[in-house]
Amino acid sequence: MRFVIVTGLSGAGKTQATRSLEDLGYFCVDNLPPKLISKFAEACMQSDGKIDKVALVIDIRGGVFFDDLFESLMELKKSNFTYEILFLEASDEVLVKRFKETRRSHPLSPNGRVITGIEAERNKLRELKSRADNIIDTSKYAIKDLRAKINLLYGNGKVSGKQLNLTVLSFGFKYGIPTDSDLVFDVRFIPNPFYIEELKPFSGNDKPVQDYVLNHDETKQFIAKLEDMLKFLIPNYVKEGKRQLIISIGCTGGRHRSVAIANALYERLKQTEYEVTIEHRDINEDVNRGARKL
């Protein structure tokens, strides 16, 4: 089991570090009273391997409970339980700026100057910092830089496609563009099966419509160009720390063309390293509305 204790100065980035660890598959607990560390570690060890990566955020927010930390660490050591300490810090100037931007008071100086709280916290955490296995100074870090550093220290050091979830979403423009879309593509330039009597009752999930839509030269070119563009975009989104990408494909009603093309794109993306799901938001909307009118 990899057992990481995340600590450090308030405002130094512990929240972002914890989110990064969660994305790497760590079971994260925030602000656990230090006296409970040993019992928590024991519970994790009894999980039959279901919990093999743990991160505990412990800092001065624990108040009087924080003073129990060193005693708890001693208990872990006596039990031959291996743990690591990750300590995050930043310069006084950067910390003051971050507190001013968020308009929050410092935990150790709730009614006074932020710098006073920072100085008190540095003194209180001095010994803990000296015991840290890894120290990260986030003064000049953007969020993506911190993510990369956490991945290097506690992941495999590589940016994995498994960290990004792709959703291919078909929809109808007449029902509105999905509000959570990241990329929207309009396929209304492709001939519409809706106007072919024998195809109208089917959807893009059915072979007759798929054959009609996908056999057009412009459809083949569009899918090829879209796939090529996504191969360029997606790794860059991953590198920037994006965790979900919604690719929306729209036609007029969201039943024929967009569904067939979304399915074809989904099948291609399934062959990549990324986690991919597909949804057809409006595939039955016209049918349902027709039923309601009746």
UniProtKB/TrEMBL annotation:
GTP binds at residues 59-62. Keywords: ATP-binding, GTP-binding, Nucleotide-binding. GO terms for molecular function: ATP binding; GTP binding. It comes from the Bacteria. ATP binds at residues 8-15. The keyword Transmembrane helix does not apply. InterPro entries: P-loop_NTPase, RapZ-like, RapZ-like_N, RapZ_C. Residues 165-283 form the RapZ C-terminal domain. Residues 1-151 form the RapZ-like N-terminal domain. The keyword Nucleotide-binding applies. Gene3D superfamilies: P-loop containing nucleotide triphosphate hydrolases (3.40.50.300). Coiled coil: none annotated. PANTHER family: RNASE ADAPTER PROTEIN RAPZ. This is RNase adapter RapZ. It comes from Inconstantimicrobium porci.
